[in-house]
Amino acid sequence: MAGCFITFEGGEGAGKSTQIERLKQRLGELAQPALVTREPGGSPHAEEIRAFILGGHAKHLGTFAEALLFAAARIDHLDKTIVPALKRGTHVLCDRFADSTWAYQGSAGNIDKALIDQLERVTLRGIKPDLTFILDLPAETGLARARERQVGRGESADRFEGEAASFHHSLRQAFLAIARNEPKRCVVINADQEPDEVEAAIWAALREKLPQLTQNRLSDNALRPLDVA
Ligand code: Z5A
């Protein structure tokens, strides 16, 4: 595809949305258009499924049924938003994707890995992120950030933020395990530092993994790899 697909993963309050906006801005300055999207959600029907799951309405159906709902949302998101953008040469910056199903429903949620694997295969149909940033920080730090933001906005905890501390600890380990298993695709970023430092670490990793994105798209050198892709 002509665009690059980049996902951001990690526990609650890791700073994904903050860094995605910063990266979009930097890419825009280099005439590298990027679409920001999120999971669950990112297309009208997937956003309806998001509201249902995060509102806690699917919890009584059990963790595997929730995994199915995340997959249903992902199919619509891929078909309506992600694949069309990549085909027209727009990069996609996605806040969470399939690794979140592995971590939340598979590892922390104790759903059989083989089932999650099969679900992922039929859902993704071969589409994988080109690069995944795993924003890593202690679960307590991320939860404290998320709570502070909720208090500021007068919101309450969603379906997953209300889980026990042990759930959030195992999530962190699950994301780190994904990164160990797929070192070519995944880069672990220390998210327990100032936003400017996190941004610099992300940019340095992007320069190494997808250097064509860190060049001005309108310059001769940058045009060649994208035209070939
Ligand atoms: N889920 C799942 O179970 N299975 C799946 O397959 C998928 C998802 C796809 C989506 O919720 C939920 O769905 C999620 C997993 C589950 N669990 N929960 N909850 P969401 O999209 O509403 O929430 P989230 O993905 O966890 O994002 P978040 O809590 O909004 O966090 P964030 O985007 O990573 O962080 P942020 O909004 O950029 O920053 C949070 C706050 O910290 C904010 O006030 C910032 O100003 C501040 N911040 C950001 N960076 C820093 C630094 N570096 N230092 C200090 N403060 C910072």
Summed up, the helix count is: 9
Order of helices and strands: EHEHHEHHEHHEHH
In terms of DSSP E residues, the strand content is: 5-15%
Structural class by SSE content? alpha/beta
Q: CATH first level: which class?
A: Alpha Beta
Written overview of the protein:
The structure is a single chain. With 229 residues, the chain is α/β, with parallel strands linked by helices. It has one domain: Rossmann fold (3-Layer(aba) Sandwich). It is built from nine helices and five strands, in the order E-H-E-H-H-E-H-H-E-H-H-E-H-H. Helix 1 crosses helix 8 and helix 2 runs antiparallel to helix 3. The longest helix is centred in the N-terminal third of the chain and has 25 residues. The radius of gyration is 17 Å and the shape is globular. The site of ligand Z5A has 27 residues, from helix 1, helix 4, helix 6 and helix 8.
Write the layout of secondary structure elements.
Blueprint: E1 5-10, H1 16-29, E2 34-38, H2 44-54, H3 63-87, E3 91-95, H4 98-107, H5 113-124, E4 131-136, H6 139-153, H7 165-181, E5 186-190, H8 195-209, H9 220-228
Parallel strand pairs: 1-3, 1-4, 2-3, 4-5
Helix pairs in contact: 1-8, 2-3, 3-5, 4-5, 4-7
Keywords:
globular, single chain, binds ligand Z5A, alpha/beta, 9 helices, Rossmann fold, 5-stranded parallel β-sheet, 229 residues
Précis, in short:
By secondary structure, the protein is of the alpha/beta class. The protein is built from nine helices and five strands; from the N terminus they run E-H-E-H-H-E-H-H-E-H-H-E-H-H.
